[in-house]
Amino acid sequence: LTREGFSSVPNVTWDEVGGLDNVRNELKNYVVQSIKNPKLYQHFGVSSKTGILLFGPPGCGKTLMAKAAANEAEANFIHVKGPELLNKYVGESELEVRKLFARARHCSPCIIFFDEVDALTTTRGREGGWVVERPLNQLLIELDGADQRQGVFVIGATNRPEVIDPAILRPGRLGNHVLVPLPSAEDRGLILKALARGKPIDPSIDLTEIGKRKACERLSGADLNKLMEDAAMIALKEATRSGNPDEEKMLLCTIQPSHFDQALEKI
Ligand code: ATP
């Protein structure tokens, strides 16, 4: 597994996440606080072991927010893609799941983030001629072994919640289900502001207004990121096209409203 070879605390902070207050709060309650204040959870008899399933359309911030939660909790983060785990000889996937949880226990507190968790938990006997029951069973065993799971928290992510085996969605397993929707008009403005951090945005730009434009309807966070990059690239080209060899002057150029207008026309 390429991504699985290391684990560390991600450097993504909540400042980089725009909007989605509801999801943010759920992650803070279920994950961050239970890592930071385990005694409080015990006191109220709230299980801190139940995992979270983040579901919703692609590119809306599931991975980003899982990382921000790990960062706030100062927990290690292991990013696993469901299909990567399955890309093994028969029997090896189970072993991989076991090794994964063992590694997470070694570096606890640790969050295991299962991206495309549906791949691991769908019975695909009809489609591909092979079944994923064995790794799924191993995953259920690991999730149920909550007592041995000290300091290991599980977040799953999927775009296809409907194909997930219901066994894994039960309380105690990935029992908290949180929708990560396409951003609202207001959230699009907040996402653009988060994405603008560190970029030379001209003060005349109103990102809240841009987020509300018709052309931005139904754009995901990933689409808005592309919009921001395109606008920056148009500004950069303009700065260099002026034939101004003076780098100092070019570094004073900013991203202007017209650059956003042009970038939006492309979408
Ligand atoms: P997938 O289901 O395809 O894995 P995802 O929901 O996990 O997608 P992310 O990988 O978290 O989506 O988001 C992709 C990129 O889109 C982020 O790296 C970020 O640049 C941008 N993005 C998405 N949502 C937000 C947000 N709420 N605030 C700021 N940036 C965002």
TrEMBL record:
Residues 48-184 form the AAA+ ATPase domain. It is found in: Cytoplasm. Belongs to the AAA ATPase family. This is AAA+ ATPase domain-containing protein. It comes from Linum tenue. The chain holds residues 504 to 770 of 793 of the full protein.
